[in-house]
Amino acid sequence: MEFMSAPWWSALLAIILIDLVLAGDNAIVIALAARSLPKHLQTKAIVWGTVGAIVVRSLMTIGVVWLLKVPGLLLVGGLGLLWIAYKLIAAGDQHEEHGVAVNTFWGAMKTIIVADALMGVDNVLGVAGAAHGAFDLVVIGLLISVPIVVFGSSMVLKLVDRFPAIMYIGAAVLAYTAAKMIVTEPLLSGIFGTKETPVAVLRYAVEAGCVALVLGLAWLATRKKPQQGENAQIAATQEPKREH
């Protein structure tokens, strides 16, 4: 593809649109993971989380031809992302030591990098396909995604701080992304169909089911933990006093 030609500009526009659509998921993960951190570490987590996302995406772009040959990649990535979407809510408000959304910088970084690696498949395949083998377009696409993710993460984080219920919307988006990965897995084409001839009803059912499952389990987990804390407090007050 000739540099600065009409097809080149058309491919660049397609890459920008792909980045705008798919980078939103990365921004949501970074914001939800960073929300448990102290205020002075949140900006640092957003910046380095974005850097990590770009590094992971760059490495995946280099190996995109190999990635296309890995059977079950989208299925495994989708299932992993479902777990992360659940834990971002279920553990996020508890600041648990072993939860996904912990209140440490490196804990947040681990969550962001793993989630970006799982979600990056769609972005990498989309950008690589739109670039038609033009390496300069792939590089430009990666650079364009940086400010999109940084700005998006900052905006989502501010909204979550003001309206905590948005966490559930973010988790729903991640669950939907995971479901899309699962139903487009080539190994499952006999069940969900192909891109050209999809089994729409089954795909919609799985997508809706994944969102409902993640939100339902997360709601139960967050509801159960305060009740356990209240029961522990009641038990402590009813414990007989020791005689001195």
Question: Your description of this structure?
Answer:
- The chain has one domain (6-238).
- Helices cover 78% and strands 0% of the residues.
- It is built from 9 helices and no strands.
- α1 (6-34) packs antiparallel against α5 and α4 packs parallel to α9.
- It is globular.
Give the overall form: globular
| Portion in strands | under 5%
The assigned structural class equals: mainly alpha
Radius of gyration: 21 Å
Task: Give the averaged pLDDT, no decimals.
Answer: 74
Stretches where pLDDT is under 50 for at least 5 consecutive residues are: 93-102
Written as H for each helix and E for each strand, in order along the chain, the element string is HHHHHHHHH
What is the number of helical segments per DSSP (H or I, 4+ residues)? 9
Number of strands: 0
Number of domains: 1
Describe the biggest sheet?
none
Distance between the termini: 87 Å
Please bin the fraction of helical residues.
over 70%
What's the gist of this structure?
This protein is mainly α and 244 residues long.
Blueprint (SSEs and pairs):
Layout (H helix, E strand, L loop, with lengths): L5 H29 L4 H24 L1 H4 L5 H18 L14 H27 L3 H28 L3 H18 L5 H4 L7 H39 L6
Keywords:
244 residues, mainly alpha, 9 helices, 0% strand, globular
